[in-house]
Amino acid sequence: MDLPFLLVCILLEVLAVKCQNAAQGRIVNGYEPIPHSITYIVSIQTMDRQHICGGFLINKYWVVTAAHCNIGVNKMMIVAGDHSLSIYEGTEQEMLPQLLVPHPAYNSTTNNNDIMLIKLRAPIYLNSYVSIALLPRQDTSVQEGKMCRVSGWGYTNPEGGTVPSTLRTVKLPIVSTEKCNSSASFNGIITENMLCAGYSIGGKDACQGDSGGPLVCDGRVYGVVSWGKGCADAQFPGVYTAVSKFRRWIDNTIFSYYSRCKKN
Ligand SMILES: *[C@@H]1O[C@H](CO)[C@@H](O)[C@H](O)[C@H]1NC(C)=O
Ligand SMILES: *[C@@H]1O[C@H](CO)[C@@H](O)[C@H](O)[C@H]1NC(C)=O
C-alpha cells in the first residue's frame, strides 16, 4: 500500500487539498503535543535507527503494534520515552525484541487481524517519560462519534536519510462500521476486527508511518493504526485494528509465554 498511499497524498497536496503533512507521512493536520505528555507510545526502528512504525507498551516487557510492521526480530529495535527522533533528549530507552508474535490469522491481503505482540529482552523502566497503556476489555465497543486520539512520528524517507521529526497527535471521531463498510466508503472490505475513525469532511487523519500506533478513547487503546486509502480523505476514514477483539488473544499469548517458560 506504501507507494499508492504516498502518491495519493502527493496528488492531494498538488491539488492544494489540506494534506500538507501527508507527503511526509505525518499525522495529518494534528499538532505537536507537549513533549513527553504521551508516554505509552514507542517508536519501532530498524537497527540503523530508521523509524518504521509506532507501537505502545502494555507492560514492562510487552509492546503492541501492527502485524504489518513485522520486519523480523533481528532487524528491529524499540525506543520508548522519545519525542524528537532526531535529537537525543536523555529520556529515551532503547530495547531489543526477544520475540515477535504476529497474530496467527493476520492476512496481509485483507489486512484482517493486523496486530502483533513484541516481547522485549529486558524490561522497560517505567518513569515520568515512559508508561503503560490500558486496553479495553474483550469485545467492548466504542460509540460512533466518540473522540479518540491518535499519535505518531513521521516516516523516514526510503533513501535512508532521517527527517527531523517530533511526535504528532490528532483527535478524531469514531465512524460506525456500517458507514465505513458502505458502498459510499470501503464497500464491504471492513471486518469486525477493524475500527474506523476520521471526519466526514476529511482533513485530519493518521498517515503512512503512523502504523502500529495507538488510537486512544477514554484512556484506553481501542485501535492500532492499520491501513487507509489516501490520507484525510473525506470518503475514506482511517482503519484501525479493533483492539477489544484481541484482548483475550493478548492476555492468553502473554500468559502462555510465561507458563511455557516455567515448565522448561
Ligand atoms: C487472505 O484472505 C483472502 C480473502 O479472504 C484469502 O483468499 C486468502 O487465502 C487469505 N490468505 C491467507 C494467507 O490466509
Ligand atoms: C462489510 O460488508 C461485507 C459485504 O457486505 C460483509 O460481508 C461484512 O460482514 C461487513 N462487515 C461487517 C463488520 O459488518
Task: Characterize the structure shown.
The protein is an alpha+beta fold and 264 residues long. It folds into two domains: 41-132 and 247-261, Beta Barrel (Thrombin, subunit H), CATH 2.40.10.10; 146-244, Trypsin-like serine proteases (Thrombin, subunit H), CATH 2.40.10.10. The chain has three helices and 13 strands; from the N terminus they run H-E-E-E-E-E-E-E-E-E-H-E-E-E-E-H. It has helices spanning 2-14, 177-180, 247-263; strands at residues 41-46, 51-57, 62-65, 76-80, 93-95, 97-102, 116-120, 147-152, 168-175, 194-197, 214-217, 220-227, 238-242. A seven-stranded antiparallel beta sheet has the order 5-4-1-2-3-7-6, with helices on one face. It has a six-stranded antiparallel barrel with strand order 8-9-10-13-12-11. It is globular, with a radius of gyration of 17 Å. The N and C termini lie far apart (42 Å). Residues 1-25 and 156-162 have low confidence and may be disordered. One 2-acetamido-2-deoxy-beta-D-glucopyranose binds at residues 107, 109-110. It is found in: Secreted, Extracellular space. This is trypsin. Residues 27-255 form the Peptidase S1 domain.
